[in-house]
């Protein structure tokens, strides 16, 4: 708590509030435009943070994170085009409400639910992070390696489509991280005689290529279609006391679930939204209304996805393991500023840790005020023609990649990974496991080598020590779950109805 109080002057200074406001506003704007994403915005903004202090840089990036997740609500409700993947389920009920003449009501529910989700997850961030970091200080190299394996397998198993594609994407990320200096000998490896490759691929051009250039290429080759435009007239965009009594339980339940999902390494807001939505339907007295304009559904989806933001920051600041793809990019931002994430962060850079925590709360408050005050004007942003934005974004990509190291080699790396990201998405191979593998691969290798050096090459602690054995067992179970689920009796399979039951489909 002392560190939190020490970080308050910076976080609440005029400069700190300004950068948080800039980040939150940009996040909302980008989240409101279909085809753009917070991941793209944060990756593209990393070069702009070089001249900033690490604390201010992370405060701005966290503001972008909070704003982009909540901003997807606008286009999802008014255009039936989710601004972010996390808002996909919001379209199922927000858009029908808007077409039925209640767009202001749908937005009011979504904005308030996002606000509550952010507050609940912030409380968890404050209460859980430091104890988890203190516990992680006792981790052995084998504990760390096993934890990273769980994170890799977990995000692969939750990837859309086949798990095999998720695993291949993760292994590809690990392979991409291997060129450069050998962590044990310091000798170049996989450089193929190219001096520029002796330091490996820099994190910045890789991330910009995967999440910005690939989206530019996608935007140039795909057409989103034209959705029916719905205007917001003079409607109340705040909730009454009766609304709080009616929907408060759903907000808290969905926010808690989203926070817990966010803490799981590599999962992200998409899964938080799905779990909260499904749970709300199970508890609802009118489950048949879900998908046709249910207020409970809008609340569950938005509270669930926004709550994952604070939850996902917990493993980032406490262990150095990203809770989502955006958190992986934030870890890349820490490395760019010479900060090594992990449990020692509370001792080595407490100003950065507590600035992240405070900015998460401040950005949530700013998001609520901005979206409530500008709700009648934000729909205009959702209809911006992306062809007007993409050329300028590409210029920023090139300049940002070159400015990092003043090497044109990094520009070619950025373009190459842009093409790779575009082709992988065309093949329905998820990018999230690739990024997690690229960020965590070197850490896993370092921990594994350290453990093997301690035990003279004996890997048995992975199965003989309690925590590594438990974690590796979870990873193995996740890998085998698709096969095991086929062997279960029909009545025990997830989602199966009890005999004679009439639950929701």
UniProtKB/TrEMBL annotation:
Annotated ranges, domain DUF112: 17-436
User: Membrane-crossing residues?
Assistant: 12-36, 56-79, 106-129, 135-155, 313-340, 352-375, 387-403, 468-488
Q: Which UniProt keywords apply?
A: Membrane, Transmembrane, Transmembrane helix
**UniProt cross-references to InterPro entries, sorted A to Z:** DUF112_TM
Could you tell me which Pfam families the record lists for this protein?
Answer: TctA
The record, for PANTHER family, names: TRICARBOXYLIC TRANSPORT PROTEIN
Q: Under what name is this protein listed?
A: Tripartite tricarboxylate transporter permease
